[in-house]
User: Fold this.
Amino acid sequence: MPTYKAPARDTRFIINEVLKLDTYGNLPGFENATADMADTVVEEAGKFIAEVVAPLNLSGDQEGCTRHADGSVTTPKGFKEAYVAYRESGWGTLTQPEAFGGQGMPHVLGFVIEEFLCSANQAFAMYPGLTNGAVAAILTKGSPEQQSMYLPKMISGEWTGTMNLTEPHCGTDLGLIRTRAVPQADGSYAITGTKIFISAGEHDLTSNIIHLVLAKTPDAPDSTKGISLFIVPKFLLDDQGNPGTRNPVSCGAIENKMGIHANATCVLNYDEAQGWLVGEENKGLAAMFIMMNAARLGVGVQGLSQAEVAYQNAVLYAQERRQGRALTGAAEPNEKADMLFVHPDVRRMLMDAKAFTEGFRAFALWGALQVDLSHKAATEEERALADEMISLLTPVIKGYGTDKGFETAVNMQQVWGGHGYIAENGMEQFVRDARIAQIYEGANGVQAMDLVGRKLGMNGGKAVQAFFATVDKDCAEAKADPQLADLAGRVEKANGELKAATMWFVQNGMTNPNNAGAGAHHYMHIMGIVTLGLMWLRMGKVAAAALAAGSGDKSFYEAKLVTARYFGERFTPDAGALRRKIEAGSGSIMELPVEAFATA
Amino acid sequence: MPTYKAPARDTRFIINEVLKLDTYGNLPGFENATADMADTVVEEAGKFIAEVVAPLNLSGDQEGCTRHADGSVTTPKGFKEAYVAYRESGWGTLTQPEAFGGQGMPHVLGFVIEEFLCSANQAFAMYPGLTNGAVAAILTKGSPEQQSMYLPKMISGEWTGTMNLTEPHCGTDLGLIRTRAVPQADGSYAITGTKIFISAGEHDLTSNIIHLVLAKTPDAPDSTKGISLFIVPKFLLDDQGNPGTRNPVSCGAIENKMGIHANATCVLNYDEAQGWLVGEENKGLAAMFIMMNAARLGVGVQGLSQAEVAYQNAVLYAQERRQGRALTGAAEPNEKADMLFVHPDVRRMLMDAKAFTEGFRAFALWGALQVDLSHKAATEEERALADEMISLLTPVIKGYGTDKGFETAVNMQQVWGGHGYIAENGMEQFVRDARIAQIYEGANGVQAMDLVGRKLGMNGGKAVQAFFATVDKDCAEAKADPQLADLAGRVEKANGELKAATMWFVQNGMTNPNNAGAGAHHYMHIMGIVTLGLMWLRMGKVAAAALAAGSGDKSFYEAKLVTARYFGERFTPDAGALRRKIEAGSGSIMELPVEAFATA
Assistant:
C-alpha cells in the first residue's frame, strides 16, 4: 500500500525562510502568523492528515461511492469518520474569517493544508475543497442575511457546498446553459434543470449541502451576460436555521470515472427547487469567477499534490527494489543486485520530480501569499501589484502545475515498472487522480487562452512587464553568486524566450488571433518554466546563505543547490523550443478542412 | 461508445506509394505481395477487425477477466466468439511460414493487421500477439520435432502461447530468476516456480496454452548466463498430439490492473510441471530475445494503435461538440456555438496526433519491411544493412512510439474535456491501455539504454552512421523541392543535434557511463523525431509528386504536405532542447545521496 508523509521540512523552508512569512506580521491577519505558528500548522496538520486521511485513499478508490435507489449516496468506508475528525480538528477553518467562526489566518497557510490533504486523498479533499469555493462566493457576493444563514455552518464543515456550472451540452461555454430560475412571489426562485459533473454533489458526510447554481431568469439575455447565481440548499432551512424540508434537487446518477472514485460526481436534477439569488441578476458569471479563481489555484495545487505523493512512493521503491547493476560497477557487490537508485535514468525521473515539486510548492505558496497581499498589503500600490501578479499567474499555476503534475505522476509510476501498473500498489491511482486536474475548473487549453488572450493585455501589459522585471532583477542579483550564476544565466535566457514570445504575440496575434491561440499552450509552459526558475533562484539564494552561515542542516541546503542546478540544466532548455513552436504560428494548424482529419 | 475504423487510405499510401511494396516482387516471399493484395489485406482485415473486434473493447474493459476457484479464467462476454471468428478469418496466419500452415506473406503486412487489432481492442490483440512471440522463438530455436508438434496449432490459433519471464523479485534483471528446471530421466524437465505478469496466461479461448518459460537448471551459473528456455504446455500432448493430461501449471491469481482489463494477466504457479528445453541449456536469454525483439516492435505499434483510435474519436467529438466561438468571429453564426474544431488549441492537439500517427505508421511499417529485408533481400549487404537499421531502431520504435502514443492518447482525451474522464465514453480507457506499452517488454528507460549502451556502438557505430547518412541524403534531395525545403532544413538540423549528442556520448560516456545513462532517454526521443522527420520527407515527396501529376485524390496529398509542415514546425524544435539536456551530463543527477530524496 502506498504511503504518505507531509513534506514538512520543505514547506517550513518555503514559508519561513524563502517567503519569510513572519516579516508580514505588521499586516492585518498576519499578526499571529509567526514562524512558530507556521511550524505548528505544518507539523500538526501534516501529521493529522497523514494518519487519518491518507490511509483511506486506496480503499476509497477501490470502493467508490454508491448511489442508492432513493438517490442518496454513500461515501466509502471510513470517509464519514475521517470527515468528522477533520472537521473537529479545526484545520478547515484556519484561513476563514473570524466573523463566521474561522481563525483568520493568511491563505498561504491554507494552501499548505490543501496540498497535504490532496496528496493524502484527493477525492476526500474535494468535499471540503468545494465548500471553500462556495464559501468564497457567498462571502463576496452574498447578502449579510445569506452570509449569516450559511457561512458559519459551511465554514465549520457542518455543511458542505458545491459549484453547479456544467450541463450536458455545455462546459466551457456557459452562455449555453438551460437551467431556468423563475421568480416566485416570496422573492425566491424555482430552479429547474440538469447539472452534470457536480463534485461532492450528494453524499452522507453532512446534514446539509449548499448548492451554488448558475441558471437563467426568464428574460435573461441568451449569453454569458444572462447568467445568475443561486443558493439552493439540499434541505431548506427552518426558522432556527436548521435543515428542514427536502428541496427537490436530487442525484440522478453518479458518474463512473477514470479516477477520484471516492468523490461523488453527480448528475443533479433540479425540479422547481427553491433557490435564492446571490448578488445581482445576470451577474452570476462574475460571482462564479470568484469561486473559479480560488478553485483554479487549488486545482494547480492538486497537480503538485499527486506529483508529491507519487514521488514519495517512487523514492521508497527505488530504494527497496534491486535490479541490475550500476553502470560504473556494482555499488553493493554483496547484494544480488543494486537498488534502482543507481540507475541514471531512474534518478533522472526522480530529480525531475524533485525539481518540479519543490519548485512548484514555492510557486504555489508564493502565489497564495500574493492573494493575501492583494487584500492586506500596506499600500494600494503593493495590493495592486500582488493582485496583478496572481491574476497573471493563476492560469499558469493551474495549467502548468497540473500538466507537470500529471507528467510527474506518470514518471513516478514508471519507476515502479510493471508493479506500477498494478492497482493494489497505488501508483496508477495517482496517475488517474492527477489526470482530472488538467481538465476541470477550465481545461488547460482554456487556462492558456486566459493567460494569452486576457491576462497578458491587462492594464496595457503592466502585469507581465512587472513579471519580466522581477525575473530579470533576481537573475542579475544571482549572477553575482558563483553557486547560482549558471542557473541565473539559464533563467534569464528562458525569460528572454518568454519576452520574445510575448512580442511575437503582440506583432502577430492582433492581426490573426489564431496565432495567439495556436501558441497559448506553449506560452503557458514557458511561463511555468520561468516562474519555477525564479523560485529556484530564490530558494538557492537562501540555501547558499544558510550554508555560508554554517547551518547545521547542511545536507538539506546542499540538496537545494544541486536540485536548482538540475532545474537549470533540464527544465530551461525547453523554453527555446517552445518559443520556436509559437513562432511557427497558426498556419499549418488552421489550414486543413475538417474532412482532412478523417483517417478511414 | 467509442468507434473505430481502420485507417485504410493512409495505410495503403504507405505500403503502396511510399514503401512501394510491389517493387520487391522479385524477392522470396514477396511474390504475392502485390499492390492489389496489400489493398485487399488493408481493406478486408480492417473491415473485419472494426466490425468484430472493436465493439468488444469497452465492454471487455468494464467486465474484465474472471478467475474461478479452480484456477480457470473466463474472458469477457463475446471474446470467445470473436476469437473463433478471428481464427477462422485467417488473418492471423498471413505472415507465418507456409511450412506450418501460414501464408508466407511479408511481415510488413502482418504489422498492418497488428496495428488495426490493437486499435480495435488491445487486450484482445494480446492473445494472438503473445502467441506470435512464442511462435517466433520455437521457429528459430525449437527442434524440428517441437516445431511440428506445436507450430501448426499455434499458428492456426487453435492454441495460444505465452512468454514467462518476470518473477515477483525480478523483471528487467533476469539473472535473478529462481524458477528451477530439474532434468528428468525421459529427457524432459520438472519446472517449479512462480511467474508473474503473464499476459494471456490462462483463459477460455483455446483448448491449450503453450507456455515458454525461463528457468534455471540445477548447475546453471547464477547470472543471465544460466537461463534456459522451456516449452511447458498447459495440457500435455497425447500420442496424437492433442491436449491430454493437465500439466501442473496453474493460475494463482489475475492482476487488478490500470488497464488492458480484458487480458488475463496471471500469476502462474509451476509445481513440477513437465517442460522441454528449447535450444541449448543456458542459452535461454538469446532465445528469449528473439521473442522480445519481435514483441518490442509490436509494442511500439501499440503506442500508435491507441493514439490512432483516440485520435479518431477526438476528431469526431471536435465536430459534434459545440462550445464557444472562433477567435476570428463566429464560424457558424446560425448555430448557438461553433464546433470545437475552430479552436486553435484543439486543432494543435489534433494536428499533433495526426503528425505522430501518420509519421509513426510510416516508421513502423518501414521498420517491418527492414525485418523482411534482413531475411529476404537479394544481397548479403542489403540484408546486413536492413538488419542493422532495425536493430538500431527497435528501441526507438518501442520507446519513442509508446511515449508519444501515450501522450497522444492523453491529448485526445483532453479534447473531450470533462466527458473524456467518464468511463462510458471510452477515451480514458485508451489512456489506461496505452500506459502499459511504456512499461512492458522492457520499460522505456531500458529501451533507451539498449539504444545508447548497445546499439550505437554495434560494429563500431556502423548502423548509426548509416542512419545519419540516409537522413542527410533525403534532406539534401528534399531541399531542392520548395514544398519540402523548410521541413528538410529542420530535419537536417535535428539530425545535426542527434549527431552532436552522439559525439558527446562518445566523448563523455566512456569515461563516465552515467553520462550515457543520464541522457539516454532524451537521445531516444531525438532519434524518434529525426526518424519521423525522415518519414515525413518521404511521404511529402510522394504527395508532392502525386499532386504534380494531377492526382484525383488532391485533398489527401495536400493534407500530407500541410501535416509535414506541421511536423517540421512543432516536432523538430525539441531536438535542440533535448541535446542540451544530454550535454548537461549526469552530475546533478547522480550527486545527491539517497537520503536527500526524503521529503518528510
About this structure: Chain A touches chain B through 113 residues (CB under 8 Å). The first strand of chain A starts at residue 66 and ends at 67. Residues 284-320 of chain A form the longest helix (37 residues). The radius of gyration of chain A is 24 Å.
